[in-house]
Amino acid sequence: MNTLLNASLKQLSSHLANKKISSTELTTEFLNRIHELNSQYNAFITVNEEMSLAQAKTADTLLASGRASPLTGIPIAQKDIFCAKGWLTTCGSKMLSNFVSPYDAGVIERFNLIGAVNIGKTNMDEFAMGSSNETSFYGVVRNPWDPLAVPGGSSGGAASAVAARLAPAATGTDTGGSIRQPAALCGISGIKPTYGLVSRYGMIAFASSLDQAGPMAKSAEDLALLLNVMVGFDFRDSTSLQRDAEDYTLDLSKPLDGVRIGLPKEYFAEGMSKDVEAAIETALDEYRKLGAQTVEISLPNTPLSIPVYYVLAPAEASSNLSRFDGVRYGYRAESYSDLGDMYRKTRAQGFGPEVKRRILIGTYVLSHGYYDAYYIKAQKLRRLIAQDFADAYKHCDIIMGPTTPTVAFNLGEKSNDPIQMYLSDIYTSAANLTGLPAMSIPVGFGDKHRPVGLHIIGNYFREAQMLNVAHQYQQATDWHQQSPL
Amino acid sequence: MQWEIVIGLEVHAQLSTQSKIFSGASTGYGALPNTQACVIDLALPGVLPVLNRGAVERAIKFGLSVGATINSPSIFARKNYFYPDLPKGYQISQYELPIVQGGIVLIQIEGGEKIIRLTRAHLEEDAGKSLHEDFHGMSGIDLNRAGTPLLEIVSEPDMRSSAEAVAYAKTLHSLVRWIGICDGNMQEGSFRCDANVSVRPCGQEKLGTRCEIKNLNSFRFLEKAIDYEARRQIDILEDGGVIRQETRLYDANKDETRTMRSKEDANDYRYFPDPDLLPLEISPLWIDQIRSSLPELPQIRKERYVSELSLPAYDATVLTNSREVGDYFESTVKLLPAQTKLCANWVMGEVMGQLNKEGIEISSCPIMPAQLAALLTRISDGTISGKAAKTVFESMWQGELGKDVDALIQAKGLKQISDDVALEGLIDQILSAHPQQVSDYRKGKEKAFNSLVGQIMKATQGKANPTQVHSILKNKLEQ
Fold first, then answer.
1. Which domain holds residue A190?
2. pLDDT (tens digit, 9 = 90+) per residue, B384-404?
3. How far is A254 from chain B (nearest CA, A)?
4. Nearest 5 degrees, angle CA A322-CA A327-CA A328?
5. pLDDT value for A224
6. Which chain A residue has the Cα nearest residue B34?
7. Which of A154, A199, A240, A415 is catalytic?
8. For the domain that residue A86 is a member of, what is the CATH number?
């Protein structure tokens, strides 16, 4: 069993192809494991054995008929932000605690199409707003490396599930770091592709211009296989990009000779803790050994990322979350006197404090008289931040730094200090503001033996190169194979 | 004091696309509640809008028809407010950069034409409907209409009377149907007007405080609402009061407007660009393609009817009210090019009169232009009188004798006596039978002439060709 739990997707795929195991058996293994351990981690909100096993059965038919593709029959944990037909889809909120989706998100559809198995819906910060998975209506998620530590957020359930080997792989979404930060904190790999590569259709919107889905798994190679499934044009998403299909596994084995790694001096300054810095420096040494060069670059507008992000993301969120009004679906207050009262009580009772905080911020910055000073200004600064990266890529091929300033903090440590919480996205939010692809891979441990993540930011559409760079490192090291169990 | 009324109109024209502006659901009218609302119209979590190209094309058509600028890019924005029939909690509209900017509409008023300037026209989605009847202590929501494409056409405050406002609204109504972007059905709400009304002392430049009257869905209500509202404002000002800027509703039953919400209660809509929709880029090539597909516009055709067909401006206006009527007239006149006025008279008179009487559209007219032309040919060549032609027309309308003009004239014995020899013999008889009238006429009593004509007509049961009767009679009397 242990070999199965730690197996790569490639290995699982070959076991399935060679009939060493059936999808039904594999799915049952993971379902049993979730049954046994989910109470410890709270990584899943919904598990539906019947539906998962039905999918596994279909996958077994596909496998038997020889029409299987690499991920056919493999259980994937789906973040509860993706609408999945017949599944409770809560987005971590009381507001949607009774919402069973009548339709599939684009991402879910693509996994269904190739016969992957939905092993369950993972826990997350409410409406993806949070960096610790403490804002979920369904309770906190535990970091498998240390039950006192947060798993990160908002895709905390996904990261915890993969790290605890409750699922071979998972999907996440990333609006300001929600794939990369929990991946870093839980010692797994995760990638947020270039904005527009993965369909947002059916992915419950937080901040539309920043949201992007991506895979979370044990290794870069796994991520490449998952990206092959997830990336693709979807006419139902007007921001989806129409590009030729790419095989993200093709460049994995390329040597790194001559690759220029840009190190932003602003990232290697105050703010990064010593333990994280040490792990990152060791990783960079490894890269030099692998033939890459490192060059210092500058991203002078780095300090603007967080303020710009916390104007734009709440602005969009305040509008995106207006549809949760108790009228058509989801939670509605039990008693109310009139329409206005119904709206107020439904939203007051249905949303948690962090969501309310962001709706208030967003409503404020879009208000008459404040719009220019906040929203318009933030959009201008957003372009400046993008220009920083465009300039930087004249001097390097790829950018590296820490994914987070510290290792996982303790549960409750920052939940009463939103500013401190927001600062944990300091390195990650720029990739969302610019739309650049970015990923995190595990590169060792810091204080209390909590994982450290290396942040890799690529140029637009350079996911294959990023995965190559990550994979080469993972060929030379074994951080990604370490498990907390 | 003399007061000047200042009016600007906002017209919502429902665009005639098969599907909605941001979803694939049908826009058909009258379906059972919520049967034409898909997951996107219901604003389920996670759904996204995809712009309907047909709606954009129609907006461009409109822009080109009024000589406006087509903005590229134009931007879709969210207008945020809560209402149960607004499923997303925001309406997707256009705010800072609308697709159509500027343009003019020419209206026909007493004493000539007037230019009404357009501010802009923008694309947006309609909301659903709240149904307050039929539900005890509750409201029903029907989202079939949610997401229906609208073009909101905003004019400058260029109108100075309710009559001008109605003329403008009618011209616009005719134009959107002419270019095929809106069915113009006002009962079904496909064409609705909001009127901004203010008054000011004549000669004052500064505009008065305006009130907006919402949802006027007939030209008559538009006129009455403006008249009432202007009177109301003038009364307040003359009593020394001030006008409060507000949104008002017209109550057709009471023929009055009343406050809906004041400016202080106005929502802060928190407009911002919709991040789900990219800026709308329109290529010059696409604009050219649409331009070349446009029909001859009513204004151009109207001018042509006056200059080439020598029709009076009034006739040209009536005949270009709708493209179908214009085309019908044009097909008729093509077969009878020397008789443009006769064709115009008959299309405007008999044809449209009969259509109105039966409440049918010209597209279902039982008499085809070629058949009408055949009938009018028989008037112009003197075979029948205009009066007889009306009898034939009625028979044709009923489908008698396969609508064959000549067969009907024959069967009904309506052919005129146009034979000079026969008429002369007849007139000689009448003259000798009425010596008194003859001598009266010769003494200068003009009336006697008509009496003699009457005798001739009586003798021929009205079939004598009146033109010939006139000239023969005149000749004989003046011999």
1. 2-256
2. 888 889 999 999 999 988 889
3. 36
4. 100
5. 98
6. A328
7. A154
8. 3.90.1300.10
Secondary structure (H, E, C), chain B: CCEEEEEEEEEEEECCCCECCCCCCECCCCCCCCCCCCCCCCCCCCCCCCCCHHHHHHHHHHHHHCCCEECCCECEEEEECCCCCCCCCEEEEECCCCCEECCEEEEEECCEEEEEEEEEEEEEECCCEEECCCCCCCCEEECCCCCCEEEEEEECCCECCHHHHHHHHHHHHHHHHHCCCCCCCCCCCCEEEEEEEEEEECCCCCCCCCEEEEEECCHHHHHHHHHHHHHHHHHHHHCCCCCCCEEEEEECCCCEEEEEEEHHHCCCCCCEECCCCCCECCCHHHHHHHHHHCCCCHHHHHHHHHHCCCCCHHHHHHHCCCHHHHHHHHHHHHHCCCCHHHHHHHHHHHHHHHHHHHCCCHHHCCCCHHHHHHHHHHHHCCCCCHHHHHHHHHHHHHCHHHHCHHHHHHHHCCCCECCHHHHHHHHHHHHHHCHHHHHHHHCCCCHHHHHHHHHHHHHCCCCECHHHHHHHHHHHHHC
Q: Is A173 within the bounds of a domain? A: yes
pLDDT at A2 over 80: no
On chain B, the residues whose CB falls within 8 A of the CB of A200 are: 46, 48
Q: Which residue has the higher pLDDT, B380 or B77?
A: B77
Say whether A14 is catalytic. Answer: no
Contacts of A89 in chain B (CB under 8 A): 45
Tens digits of residue pLDDT in B83-94: 999 999 999 999
DSSP, collapsed to helix, strand or coil, labels residue A45 as strand
Q: How confident is residue A1, by pLDDT bands cut at 50, 70 and 90?
A: low
B387: which 2 tokens?
Answer: 């009066």
Helix axes B466-478, B447-459, angle to 10 degrees: 130
Q: What is the mean pLDDT of chain A?
A: 97
- What's the pTM? 0.92
Taken in order of first residue, the domains within chain B and their CATH numbers are: 3-285 (no CATH), 296-412 (no CATH), 420-477 (1.10.10.410)
Whether A158 is in a domain gets the answer: yes
* Beta-carbon separation of B46 and A96 below 8 A: no
| Nearest alpha carbon to residue A399 among A325, A326, A298 | A298
The answer to whether A145 touches A408, Cβ cutoff 8 Å, is yes
- Predicted-complex ipTM score: 0.96
In a domain, A182, yes or no: yes
Mutate to test the interface with A, among B19, B48, B274, B276 (most CBs of A within 10 A): B48
Q: Which residues of B touch A316 (CB under 8 A)?
A: 275
Pairwise CA distance, residues B160 & A339, whole Å: 41
Distance from CA of B265 to the nearest CA of A (A): 14
Instruction: Tell me phi and psi for residue B377, to 5 degrees.
Output: -60, -40
Q: How far apart are the first and last CA of chain A?
A: 13
Whether A448 is catalytic: no
Six token digits for residue A240: 């989806």
Least confident of A108-117, A457-466, B393-402, B420-429: B420-429
Strand A293-297 relative to strand A260-264: parallel, antiparallel, unpaired?
A: parallel
Q: pLDDT tens digit string along B130-177?
A: 888 778 888 899 999 999 999 999 999 999 999 999 999 999 999 999
What are A343-365's pLDDT values in tens digits? Answer: 999 999 999 999 999 999 999 99
Structural domain includes residue A78: yes
How many domains would you assign to chain A?
A: 1
A79 a catalytic residue? yes
User: Measuring CA to CA, how many Å separate B272 from each of A362, B50, B86, B90?
Assistant: 11, 18, 17, 11
Query: Rounded to an integer, what distance in angstroms lies between the CA atom of residue A154 and that of residue B137?
Result: 42
Q: Does A123 touch chain B (CB under 8 A)?
A: no
Q: Which residue of B has its CA nearest to A199?
A: B48
